[in-house]
Amino acid sequence: MATALHNLSNYDPNKVPDASNMCFGIVVSEWNPEITRALLDGAVGTLEKHGALPENIHIKTVPGSFELVYGAHQMTLNDGYDAIIILGSVIRGETPHFDYICQGVTQGIAQLNATSQIPVIYGLLTTNDLRQAQDRAGGRLGNKGNECAVVAIKMAKF
Ligand code: DLZ
């Protein structure tokens, strides 16, 4: 969680395994593209920083965050991946839609982690407003994409 005491991009690089022999799938949502593009840039940059080869990072887009579960599920059917990352941004509106999408994605990704052989890393920003999302997508609280990349490498090694 990003708080005033925790920046999402802060980690000890010496505790991250070498990713040069790993293959990653990333599913990214097209909603709130300014945010999800920044998350994607952070994730890819961090994977490559730890040795992942660009040709071993496969990126697929889906229309919205709700479709992240389907996209990740399809990727788990390909056993060539060591870890899969989902990236999305849901911003609270005036209707309960926000809660349904967040719950659906969260439960869907949890179910995938409990049933498939490949770890699926949860990079869904669920924020009250755009500023909170910007803060966590390369802003003052770091980048959730960086954090997800580090988690993906560690879980691939698990
Ligand atoms: C419909 C919708 C709304 C209102 N808000 C968001 C959002 O903030 N972030 C996001 O990623 N997607 C949103 N969507 C789209 C849904 O995730 C989904 O794509 C549609 O309901 C179609 O299944």
UniProtKB/TrEMBL annotation:
Originating gene: ribH
Entry's EC annotation: 2.5.1.78
Lineage: Bacteria, Pseudomonadati, Bacteroidota, Bacteroidia, Bacteroidales
Name the UniProt record assigns to this protein: 6,7-dimethyl-8-ribityllumazine synthase
BP-aspect Gene Ontology terms: riboflavin biosynthetic process
NCBIfam families: lumazine-synth
Superkingdom of source: Bacteria
Gene Ontology MF terms in the entry: 6,7-dimethyl-8-ribityllumazine synthase activity
Assigned keywords, A-Z: Riboflavin biosynthesis, Transferase
Residues where 5-amino-6-(D-ribitylamino)uracil binds: W31, S65, F66, E67, S89, V90, I91, Y122
Organism: Prevotella koreensis
Gene3D superfamilies in UniProt: Lumazine/riboflavin synthase
Annotated pathway: Cofactor biosynthesis; riboflavin biosynthesis; riboflavin from 2-hydroxy-3-oxobutyl phosphate and 5-amino-6-(D-ribitylamino)uracil: step 1/2
Matching InterPro entries: LS, LS/RS, LS/RS_sf
Cellular component GO terms, alphabetical: cytosol; riboflavin synthase complex
Similarity annotation: Belongs to the DMRL synthase family.
Binding site for (2S)-2-hydroxy-3-oxobutyl phosphate: E94, T95, R136
Catalytic activity reported: (2S)-2-hydroxy-3-oxobutyl phosphate + 5-amino-6-(D-ribitylamino)uracil = 6,7-dimethyl-8-(1-D-ribityl)lumazine + phosphate + 2 H2O + H(+)
Principal EC category: transferase
Residues of the active site: H97 (proton donor)
Function summary: Catalyzes the formation of 6,7-dimethyl-8-ribityllumazine by condensation of 5-amino-6-(D-ribitylamino)uracil with 3,4-dihydroxy-2-butanone 4-phosphate. This is the penultimate step in the biosynthesis of riboflavin.
